[in-house]
Amino acid sequence: MRGQSEPAVCPAAAVCCIVFAVSKTAFLIIDSSERNSDLYHRTGFFVPDPVIFFEHDGEGTLVLSDLELERGKKEARVERVISLGQCVARLSRGRRKRPAMAEVAADLLAQRKVRSLIVQRQFPLFYADELREAGFSVKTAKTDFLFPGRLRKSSAEVSLIKKALFATAEAMRLAISIISDSDVKGSFLYRDGKPLTSEIVRSAVNSLLASRGYLASNTIVAGGKQGSMPHEGGSGPLAAGWPVVIDIFPRSQSNGYFGDMTRTVVRGEPSSELLRMYNTVLSGQKIALSMIKDGVRGKDVHGAVMDFFTEHGFSTTSSSGATEPEGFIHSTGHGLGLDIHEPPRIGPGDEVLREGNVVTVEPGLYYGHLGGIRIEDVVLVTRDGNENLTRCSKKFRV
Known about the structure:
The protein is built from 9 helices and 23 strands. The chain is of the alpha+beta class. The strands form 8 sheets. A 6-stranded mixed beta sheet has the order 6-5-4-3-7-8, sandwiched between helices. The chain starts with 7 loop residues before the first strand and ends in a 10-residue tail after the last strand.
Protein backbone atom coordinates (compact mmCIF):
# COMPACT_ATOMS: atom_id res chain seq x y z
CA MET A 1 0.00 0.00 0.00
CA ARG A 2 1.20 3.51 -0.80
CA GLY A 3 1.72 6.00 1.99
CA GLN A 4 0.50 9.59 2.00
CA SER A 5 3.83 10.77 0.67
CA GLU A 6 3.37 8.63 -2.43
CA PRO A 7 0.35 9.97 -4.34
CA ALA A 8 -1.03 7.81 -7.12
CA VAL A 9 -2.29 9.58 -10.24
CA CYS A 10 -5.62 8.29 -11.55
CA PRO A 11 -8.56 9.58 -13.63
CA ALA A 12 -11.83 10.34 -11.86
CA ALA A 13 -14.95 11.37 -13.76
CA ALA A 14 -12.83 12.37 -16.77
CA VAL A 15 -10.84 14.77 -14.58
CA CYS A 16 -7.17 14.12 -13.90
CA CYS A 17 -6.56 14.40 -10.17
CA ILE A 18 -4.31 13.07 -7.44
CA VAL A 19 -5.76 10.62 -4.98
CA PHE A 20 -4.06 9.17 -1.94
CA ALA A 21 -4.41 5.42 -1.70
CA VAL A 22 -4.74 5.60 2.08
CA SER A 23 -8.37 4.74 2.76
CA LYS A 24 -8.68 6.95 5.83
CA THR A 25 -7.72 10.16 4.02
CA ALA A 26 -10.00 12.37 1.90
CA PHE A 27 -9.98 15.74 0.18
CA LEU A 28 -12.67 18.10 1.48
CA ILE A 29 -14.11 21.35 0.14
CA ILE A 30 -16.98 23.34 1.67
CA ASP A 31 -17.56 26.28 -0.64
CA SER A 32 -19.37 27.61 -3.68
CA SER A 33 -18.09 26.41 -7.05
CA GLU A 34 -18.84 29.86 -8.44
CA ARG A 35 -15.82 31.18 -6.56
CA ASN A 36 -13.84 27.99 -5.85
CA SER A 37 -12.03 26.97 -9.02
CA ASP A 38 -10.81 23.64 -7.59
CA LEU A 39 -14.38 22.65 -6.81
CA TYR A 40 -15.66 23.66 -10.22
CA HIS A 41 -12.80 21.96 -12.03
CA ARG A 42 -13.43 18.68 -10.20
CA THR A 43 -17.24 18.68 -10.44
CA GLY A 44 -18.01 20.75 -13.54
CA PHE A 45 -21.00 22.14 -11.64
CA PHE A 46 -21.67 25.84 -11.13
CA VAL A 47 -23.49 26.63 -7.89
CA PRO A 48 -23.63 30.03 -6.11
CA ASP A 49 -24.11 28.75 -2.54
CA PRO A 50 -21.74 26.65 -0.41
CA VAL A 51 -21.87 22.89 -0.92
CA ILE A 52 -19.96 19.96 0.52
CA PHE A 53 -17.61 17.98 -1.69
CA PHE A 54 -15.20 15.26 -0.70
CA GLU A 55 -13.09 12.80 -2.64
CA HIS A 56 -12.16 9.49 -1.09
CA ASP A 57 -10.39 6.65 -2.88
CA GLY A 58 -11.00 8.36 -6.21
CA GLU A 59 -14.74 8.71 -5.68
CA GLY A 60 -16.21 12.20 -5.63
CA THR A 61 -19.28 12.95 -3.48
CA LEU A 62 -21.27 16.18 -3.79
CA VAL A 63 -23.79 17.16 -1.11
CA LEU A 64 -26.40 19.55 -2.50
CA SER A 65 -29.46 21.37 -1.22
CA ASP A 66 -32.79 20.20 -2.60
CA LEU A 67 -32.77 23.38 -4.69
CA GLU A 68 -29.80 22.07 -6.70
CA LEU A 69 -30.21 18.32 -6.25
CA GLU A 70 -31.79 17.27 -9.55
CA ARG A 71 -29.62 19.61 -11.61
CA GLY A 72 -26.54 18.25 -9.83
CA LYS A 73 -27.49 14.65 -10.61
CA LYS A 74 -27.67 15.55 -14.30
CA GLU A 75 -24.68 17.88 -14.62
CA ALA A 76 -22.08 17.21 -11.92
CA ARG A 77 -19.05 15.09 -12.85
CA VAL A 78 -19.03 13.11 -9.61
CA GLU A 79 -19.76 9.54 -8.59
CA ARG A 80 -22.36 10.37 -5.94
CA VAL A 81 -24.81 13.22 -5.34
CA ILE A 82 -26.43 13.32 -1.89
CA SER A 83 -29.32 15.38 -0.57
CA LEU A 84 -28.22 17.86 2.08
CA GLY A 85 -31.83 18.07 3.25
CA GLN A 86 -31.94 14.34 4.01
CA CYS A 87 -28.61 14.53 5.86
CA VAL A 88 -29.82 17.44 7.97
CA ALA A 89 -33.16 15.76 8.71
CA ARG A 90 -31.42 12.60 9.92
CA LEU A 91 -28.98 14.51 12.14
CA SER A 92 -31.70 16.87 13.44
CA ARG A 93 -33.85 14.19 15.06
CA GLY A 94 -34.29 15.03 18.70
CA ARG A 95 -32.32 18.29 18.39
CA ARG A 96 -33.32 21.90 18.54
CA LYS A 97 -30.39 23.26 16.55
CA ARG A 98 -29.94 22.61 12.84
CA PRO A 99 -26.66 20.78 12.07
CA ALA A 100 -23.97 22.97 10.48
CA MET A 101 -22.22 22.15 7.19
CA ALA A 102 -19.11 20.89 8.96
CA GLU A 103 -21.21 18.56 11.11
CA VAL A 104 -22.88 17.08 8.03
CA ALA A 105 -19.49 16.62 6.40
CA ALA A 106 -18.10 14.99 9.54
CA ASP A 107 -20.98 12.53 9.70
CA LEU A 108 -20.64 11.47 6.05
CA LEU A 109 -16.87 11.14 6.30
CA ALA A 110 -17.11 9.10 9.51
CA GLN A 111 -19.43 6.68 7.72
CA ARG A 112 -16.59 6.02 5.27
CA LYS A 113 -14.15 5.67 8.18
CA VAL A 114 -12.22 8.75 7.07
CA ARG A 115 -10.26 10.39 9.88
CA SER A 116 -7.70 12.51 7.99
CA LEU A 117 -8.61 15.44 5.73
CA ILE A 118 -6.63 17.46 3.21
CA VAL A 119 -8.13 20.88 2.51
CA GLN A 120 -7.28 23.97 0.47
CA ARG A 121 -5.09 26.67 1.90
CA GLN A 122 -8.09 29.02 1.95
CA PHE A 123 -10.32 26.51 3.78
CA PRO A 124 -12.28 28.46 6.44
CA LEU A 125 -10.75 28.23 9.89
CA PHE A 126 -14.10 27.79 11.65
CA TYR A 127 -14.83 24.67 9.57
CA ALA A 128 -11.36 23.31 10.33
CA ASP A 129 -11.84 23.95 14.06
CA GLU A 130 -15.21 22.17 14.09
CA LEU A 131 -13.78 19.17 12.25
CA ARG A 132 -10.78 18.94 14.56
CA GLU A 133 -13.12 19.05 17.55
CA ALA A 134 -14.97 16.13 15.95
CA GLY A 135 -11.72 14.15 15.94
CA PHE A 136 -10.46 14.70 12.40
CA SER A 137 -6.92 15.50 11.41
CA VAL A 138 -7.08 18.53 9.08
CA LYS A 139 -4.06 19.44 6.98
CA THR A 140 -3.68 21.95 4.15
CA ALA A 141 -2.56 20.93 0.68
CA LYS A 142 1.12 21.38 -0.15
CA THR A 143 0.28 23.20 -3.40
CA ASP A 144 -2.06 26.04 -4.33
CA PHE A 145 -4.59 23.53 -5.66
CA LEU A 146 -6.01 20.28 -4.36
CA PHE A 147 -5.88 19.01 -7.93
CA PRO A 148 -2.61 20.30 -9.41
CA GLY A 149 -3.20 18.31 -12.58
CA ARG A 150 -5.52 21.13 -13.65
CA LEU A 151 -2.48 23.29 -14.42
CA ARG A 152 -1.90 21.22 -17.56
CA LYS A 153 -4.89 22.14 -19.67
CA SER A 154 -6.79 19.57 -21.69
CA SER A 155 -7.65 20.26 -25.33
CA ALA A 156 -11.22 21.03 -24.23
CA GLU A 157 -9.97 23.58 -21.70
CA VAL A 158 -7.68 25.20 -24.27
CA SER A 159 -10.69 25.55 -26.58
CA LEU A 160 -12.65 27.34 -23.85
CA ILE A 161 -9.73 29.70 -23.19
CA LYS A 162 -9.45 30.38 -26.93
CA LYS A 163 -13.14 31.22 -26.98
CA ALA A 164 -12.67 33.64 -24.08
CA LEU A 165 -9.70 35.23 -25.86
CA PHE A 166 -11.75 35.62 -29.04
CA ALA A 167 -14.34 37.62 -27.10
CA THR A 168 -11.55 39.55 -25.37
CA ALA A 169 -10.00 40.46 -28.72
CA GLU A 170 -13.37 41.63 -30.02
CA ALA A 171 -13.72 43.92 -27.00
CA MET A 172 -10.12 45.13 -27.37
CA ARG A 173 -10.67 46.05 -31.01
CA LEU A 174 -13.76 48.00 -29.98
CA ALA A 175 -11.81 49.90 -27.32
CA ILE A 176 -9.02 50.73 -29.76
CA SER A 177 -11.48 51.81 -32.46
CA ILE A 178 -13.15 54.24 -30.04
CA ILE A 179 -9.79 55.80 -29.29
CA SER A 180 -8.61 55.82 -32.92
CA ASP A 181 -11.87 57.47 -34.06
CA SER A 182 -11.52 60.27 -31.52
CA ASP A 183 -10.43 63.80 -32.42
CA VAL A 184 -7.33 65.47 -31.02
CA LYS A 185 -8.21 68.90 -29.66
CA GLY A 186 -5.41 70.56 -27.81
CA SER A 187 -4.13 68.20 -25.13
CA PHE A 188 -7.11 65.85 -25.00
CA LEU A 189 -9.16 63.41 -27.06
CA TYR A 190 -12.76 64.18 -28.03
CA ARG A 191 -15.54 62.01 -29.39
CA ASP A 192 -18.85 63.40 -30.67
CA GLY A 193 -17.78 66.80 -29.43
CA LYS A 194 -17.25 65.63 -25.84
CA PRO A 195 -14.08 64.62 -23.96
CA LEU A 196 -13.31 60.94 -24.36
CA THR A 197 -12.89 59.36 -20.94
CA SER A 198 -11.66 56.08 -19.51
CA GLU A 199 -15.18 55.44 -18.30
CA ILE A 200 -16.67 55.70 -21.81
CA VAL A 201 -14.22 53.16 -23.22
CA ARG A 202 -14.59 50.81 -20.24
CA SER A 203 -18.38 50.89 -20.43
CA ALA A 204 -18.31 49.95 -24.11
CA VAL A 205 -15.91 47.07 -23.44
CA ASN A 206 -17.90 45.69 -20.52
CA SER A 207 -21.23 45.99 -22.36
CA LEU A 208 -19.95 44.13 -25.40
CA LEU A 209 -18.53 41.32 -23.28
CA ALA A 210 -21.77 41.02 -21.30
CA SER A 211 -23.64 40.56 -24.57
CA ARG A 212 -21.25 37.71 -25.41
CA GLY A 213 -21.79 35.97 -22.06
CA TYR A 214 -18.69 37.23 -20.25
CA LEU A 215 -18.31 39.21 -17.06
CA ALA A 216 -15.62 41.88 -17.36
CA SER A 217 -14.61 42.94 -13.87
CA ASN A 218 -12.14 45.77 -13.14
CA THR A 219 -11.31 46.43 -16.81
CA ILE A 220 -8.33 48.77 -17.03
CA VAL A 221 -8.36 51.82 -19.31
CA ALA A 222 -5.57 53.93 -17.81
CA GLY A 223 -4.21 56.88 -19.72
CA GLY A 224 -1.26 59.17 -19.12
CA LYS A 225 0.39 59.04 -15.73
CA GLN A 226 -2.35 56.72 -14.44
CA GLY A 227 -0.88 54.03 -16.67
CA SER A 228 2.37 54.11 -14.69
CA MET A 229 0.53 52.15 -11.96
CA PRO A 230 -0.04 48.64 -13.38
CA HIS A 231 -3.39 47.98 -11.69
CA GLU A 232 -4.82 51.50 -11.82
CA GLY A 233 -8.27 51.23 -13.43
CA GLY A 234 -8.14 54.67 -15.01
CA SER A 235 -10.57 57.57 -14.83
CA GLY A 236 -11.31 60.90 -16.46
CA PRO A 237 -10.38 62.41 -19.84
CA LEU A 238 -7.80 60.69 -22.02
CA ALA A 239 -4.88 62.86 -23.08
CA ALA A 240 -3.51 63.15 -26.61
CA GLY A 241 0.04 61.88 -27.15
CA TRP A 242 0.01 59.81 -23.95
CA PRO A 243 -0.19 56.01 -23.85
CA VAL A 244 -3.46 54.34 -22.85
CA VAL A 245 -3.07 50.93 -21.19
CA ILE A 246 -6.08 48.69 -21.90
CA ASP A 247 -6.22 45.45 -19.91
CA ILE A 248 -9.30 43.23 -20.37
CA PHE A 249 -9.73 39.95 -18.46
CA PRO A 250 -13.31 38.64 -18.71
CA ARG A 251 -14.69 35.42 -17.27
CA SER A 252 -17.19 33.21 -19.07
CA GLN A 253 -20.53 33.07 -17.29
CA SER A 254 -21.18 29.60 -18.67
CA ASN A 255 -17.91 27.73 -18.09
CA GLY A 256 -15.78 29.93 -15.80
CA TYR A 257 -12.66 30.25 -17.96
CA PHE A 258 -10.88 33.57 -18.31
CA GLY A 259 -9.44 35.52 -21.19
CA ASP A 260 -6.69 38.08 -20.60
CA MET A 261 -5.16 40.63 -22.93
CA THR A 262 -3.39 43.98 -22.68
CA ARG A 263 -2.65 46.47 -25.42
CA THR A 264 -1.23 49.96 -25.16
CA VAL A 265 -2.15 52.59 -27.74
CA VAL A 266 -1.62 56.28 -28.29
CA ARG A 267 -3.71 58.81 -30.18
CA GLY A 268 -1.82 61.95 -31.21
CA GLU A 269 1.92 62.45 -31.38
CA PRO A 270 3.92 60.48 -28.82
CA SER A 271 7.40 61.58 -27.80
CA SER A 272 10.43 59.80 -29.24
CA GLU A 273 11.14 58.41 -25.77
CA LEU A 274 7.66 56.86 -25.63
CA LEU A 275 8.13 55.29 -29.06
CA ARG A 276 11.43 53.81 -27.95
CA MET A 277 9.86 52.53 -24.74
CA TYR A 278 7.04 50.84 -26.65
CA ASN A 279 9.41 49.16 -29.09
CA THR A 280 11.55 47.98 -26.17
CA VAL A 281 8.55 46.36 -24.46
CA LEU A 282 7.48 44.74 -27.72
CA SER A 283 10.99 43.36 -28.26
CA GLY A 284 11.08 42.16 -24.65
CA GLN A 285 7.87 40.23 -25.21
CA LYS A 286 9.36 38.62 -28.32
CA ILE A 287 12.34 37.48 -26.25
CA ALA A 288 10.02 35.87 -23.69
CA LEU A 289 7.94 34.20 -26.40
CA SER A 290 11.07 32.79 -28.01
CA MET A 291 12.14 31.15 -24.74
CA ILE A 292 8.89 29.64 -23.44
CA LYS A 293 8.68 25.87 -23.77
CA ASP A 294 8.38 22.74 -21.64
CA GLY A 295 11.07 22.56 -18.95
CA VAL A 296 12.09 26.23 -18.96
CA ARG A 297 12.35 27.99 -15.62
CA GLY A 298 10.15 31.03 -15.30
CA LYS A 299 12.93 33.02 -13.68
CA ASP A 300 15.17 32.49 -16.70
CA VAL A 301 12.53 34.00 -18.99
CA HIS A 302 11.86 36.85 -16.58
CA GLY A 303 15.56 37.53 -16.07
CA ALA A 304 16.20 37.71 -19.82
CA VAL A 305 13.48 40.33 -20.25
CA MET A 306 14.68 42.29 -17.24
CA ASP A 307 18.26 42.29 -18.54
CA PHE A 308 17.11 43.40 -21.99
CA PHE A 309 15.21 46.35 -20.56
CA THR A 310 18.18 47.41 -18.44
CA GLU A 311 20.60 47.12 -21.36
CA HIS A 312 18.37 49.45 -23.37
CA GLY A 313 18.31 52.14 -20.70
CA PHE A 314 15.05 51.25 -18.91
CA SER A 315 16.18 50.44 -15.40
CA THR A 316 14.01 49.16 -12.56
CA THR A 317 14.09 50.62 -9.08
CA SER A 318 12.24 49.49 -5.96
CA SER A 319 10.40 51.84 -3.61
CA SER A 320 12.59 53.60 -1.08
CA GLY A 321 11.50 56.52 1.01
CA ALA A 322 10.01 59.22 -1.18
CA THR A 323 10.56 57.40 -4.48
CA GLU A 324 8.03 55.07 -6.06
CA PRO A 325 9.02 51.84 -7.85
CA GLU A 326 9.44 52.22 -11.58
CA GLY A 327 10.59 50.23 -14.58
CA PHE A 328 9.67 46.55 -14.93
CA ILE A 329 7.91 46.16 -11.59
CA HIS A 330 5.93 42.94 -12.00
CA SER A 331 6.48 39.40 -13.25
CA THR A 332 6.56 38.51 -16.94
CA GLY A 333 3.45 36.34 -16.73
CA HIS A 334 1.18 33.98 -14.85
CA GLY A 335 -0.99 30.94 -15.40
CA LEU A 336 -4.52 31.41 -16.72
CA GLY A 337 -7.60 29.22 -16.58
CA LEU A 338 -10.42 29.07 -14.06
CA ASP A 339 -8.49 31.68 -12.05
CA ILE A 340 -7.20 34.91 -13.53
CA HIS A 341 -3.92 34.36 -11.68
CA GLU A 342 -2.76 30.80 -11.13
CA PRO A 343 0.53 28.92 -11.28
CA PRO A 344 2.95 28.70 -12.92
CA ARG A 345 4.27 32.23 -12.66
CA ILE A 346 6.95 33.61 -14.94
CA GLY A 347 8.89 35.61 -12.41
CA PRO A 348 11.79 35.46 -9.94
CA GLY A 349 10.61 32.19 -8.35
CA ASP A 350 11.68 28.64 -9.14
CA GLU A 351 8.57 27.49 -11.01
CA VAL A 352 9.11 25.45 -14.18
CA LEU A 353 6.89 25.70 -17.25
CA ARG A 354 5.38 22.42 -18.41
CA GLU A 355 3.67 21.27 -21.59
CA GLY A 356 -0.03 22.04 -21.30
CA ASN A 357 0.38 25.14 -19.12
CA VAL A 358 -1.47 28.21 -20.37
CA VAL A 359 0.34 31.40 -19.36
CA THR A 360 0.26 35.11 -20.04
CA VAL A 361 3.31 36.91 -21.43
CA GLU A 362 3.02 40.54 -20.38
CA PRO A 363 6.20 42.55 -19.89
CA GLY A 364 5.76 46.22 -19.12
CA LEU A 365 7.57 49.45 -18.27
CA TYR A 366 6.21 52.15 -15.96
CA TYR A 367 7.55 55.65 -15.30
CA GLY A 368 5.67 58.56 -13.79
CA HIS A 369 6.86 61.07 -16.39
CA LEU A 370 5.99 58.79 -19.34
CA GLY A 371 3.08 56.65 -18.19
CA GLY A 372 2.96 52.90 -18.69
CA ILE A 373 3.30 50.44 -21.53
CA ARG A 374 2.26 46.79 -21.28
CA ILE A 375 1.66 44.21 -24.01
CA GLU A 376 0.05 40.90 -23.08
CA ASP A 377 -0.63 37.71 -25.00
CA VAL A 378 -1.68 34.25 -23.79
CA VAL A 379 0.24 31.17 -24.92
CA LEU A 380 -0.04 27.40 -24.60
CA VAL A 381 3.26 25.83 -23.56
CA THR A 382 4.26 22.97 -25.85
CA ARG A 383 7.12 20.48 -25.75
CA ASP A 384 9.29 22.42 -28.18
CA GLY A 385 7.93 25.96 -27.80
CA ASN A 386 4.53 27.57 -27.44
CA GLU A 387 1.36 28.41 -29.34
CA ASN A 388 0.17 32.00 -29.14
CA LEU A 389 -3.59 31.90 -28.53
CA THR A 390 -4.05 35.67 -28.88
CA ARG A 391 -5.15 37.29 -32.12
CA CYS A 392 -5.07 41.07 -31.95
CA SER A 393 -2.97 43.86 -33.47
CA LYS A 394 -0.11 45.36 -31.47
CA LYS A 395 -0.12 48.71 -33.24
CA PHE A 396 0.88 51.55 -30.92
CA ARG A 397 -0.15 54.67 -32.83
CA VAL A 398 -3.84 54.61 -33.75
